[in-house]
Protein: Recombination protein RecR
Amino acid sequence: MSLFGLSLGRLLEALRCLPGVGPKSAQRMAFHLLESDREGGRHLAQALLEALDKMTHCQTCRILSETDLCSLCADSRRDRGQLCVVEMPSDVQAIEQATSYSGRYFVLMGHLSPLDGVGPEALGMDLLAKRLDTDQIREVILATNLTVEGEATAYYISELAQTRGITTTRIAHGVPLGGELEFIDSNTLSHAFQSRRHL
Structure:
């Protein structure tokens, strides 16, 4: 039981469900909302309830959406021939904010991880395969994370695409813009050398 009562204890426990929020962070957030910004706390609670009630997944790309077809999939100006495959909805937002990419997306909602029981069916690979078969896609851009699981997922998807004669590309990775080689870790530098291209 919390020193300050059951309701605060439940709030602290609820806040800890967020990624990266431990006991101290949860306590700091809870005390801030209760001591300094109760109106903000009410607004947060209302916005969270509304999002939980209204948000679903787009039937085509699986991004979070309030409708069955998200605004990206409904936009006829986007290139239907390019399909960028990402792990999470936040990846779509990052790409949209940082690039001029104008194709379509497919969100896996994770990555292959057999040890954790996450196989192709959990990632919607059947829906992805259907899109590859029916959507006249000419290029699949693999933008999964550069982890062992992300690489395995990218390989699996590249096999799906290549058996259908669809060009598969992988986003570049390596030395960041403005990065100095002496400060780059060896794995990143190794990938950068392997992924070098002609100028």
